[in-house]
Amino acid sequence: MASPRRLAYFRAMPEVILYIAHSVDGFIADRDGGIGFLKPFDGWDFGYDAFYGRVDALVMGRKTYQDCRTFPEWPYRGRPVVVMTKGPPLDGDGLAVFDDRTPQEILIDLEHAGRRRVWVVGGGGPVRAFLDAKLLKRIILFQIPVILGNGAPLWPPGRRKVDLKLRRATTHLNGVVETEYEIG
Amino acid sequence: MASPRRLAYFRAMPEVILYIAHSVDGFIADRDGGIGFLKPFDGWDFGYDAFYGRVDALVMGRKTYQDCRTFPEWPYRGRPVVVMTKGPPLDGDGLAVFDDRTPQEILIDLEHAGRRRVWVVGGGGPVRAFLDAKLLKRIILFQIPVILGNGAPLWPPGRRKVDLKLRRATTHLNGVVETEYEIG
Fold this sequence. Notes:
The structure is a homodimer of 184-residue chains. Chain A is 23% helix and 33% strand. Chain A is built from five helices and eleven strands; from the N terminus they run αββαβαββαβαβββββ. Chain A has helices spanning 4-11, 48-54, 62-69, 103-112, 124-132; strands at residues 15-23, 27-29, 57-61, 81-84, 97-99, 117-122, 136-144, 146-147, 152-153, 162-171, 177-183. In chain A, the strands form two sheets. In chain A, strands 5-4-3-6-1-7-11-10 form an eight-stranded mixed β-sheet. In chain A, strands 2-9 form a two-stranded antiparallel sheet. The longest helix of chain A is centred in the middle third of the chain and has 10 residues, at 103-112. In chain A, 39% of the residues are buried. The A-B interface holds A 24-26, 30, 37, 131, 139, 141, 143, 145-150, 154-155, 157-166, 169, 171, 175-177, 179, 181 and B 24-26, 30, 37, 131, 139, 141, 143, 145-150, 154-155, 157-166, 169, 171, 175-177, 179, 181.
């Protein structure tokens, strides 16, 4: 049994949330790394603003960061962004910090900085890392009505079976099915 | 433009339906080929009887057939069952026919036999084959609230992007999300 001190420690950890769109066959980008399959669903109100207003830090992989840098404007201004990468820092303009440490270490730092809700933006690498570290607590998925056939998987292979609790399922009129799950 | 004769031919082809349960990360069996993750949802009324009453032929892969043969009773008595396999026939007791031909050839035979609705039971091989042959018309998925990490994929890699139309999404109180898609 955990000691009260240990319990108190875990209760203070920020909630880590995955919030992501994927194809019916589980891809978050096509074989060329593109996200053109999301295009027909642009402009639809999926409740993103409300979600974004509730998170106070972002974590993403190197590839996701590079994709976001191709947008006309950096979409996450004002929010701390941690890029998980074993490689060297990609940019020095301060829009993100580059971190080669474990999910646990990153999360402890975010907790010390007073962050309460962390959005794991993608891709599969950080998702798997936070899931395996048992730090992922909430999963919000947007299933796009398309089969891509190949591409970047949302769920790279892992060893652990994880039971989920369905909290909510929402059918959007454009054919996107949104589900929200909690872990343990 | 297709000739009227050609249209009439296609209109006569049986409707091919995928109806299957999968984990959130897209597996239909765990790494040992087991389906224990479905066990907690046994006995729930997912509308299977109504669905089964509407199909009049079944197609499955070799592995799925072998799994079904381990059940105390053959679950598909009275329905023609085609097992797609490049290997030799597995059994001679007439519960299934073993067929090494293409989805198109199999479907034409079923049509000649007066079959109107064909259930692709699984696994990933036959699903991919019918999808690639543009013969899969309806997809009914039961998303089980679990992440398996590894196993037999519902969607083996393919080359073709396929747009789907969401027809229905149903949230079952045990946490299973059912979606029904049509293919153009």
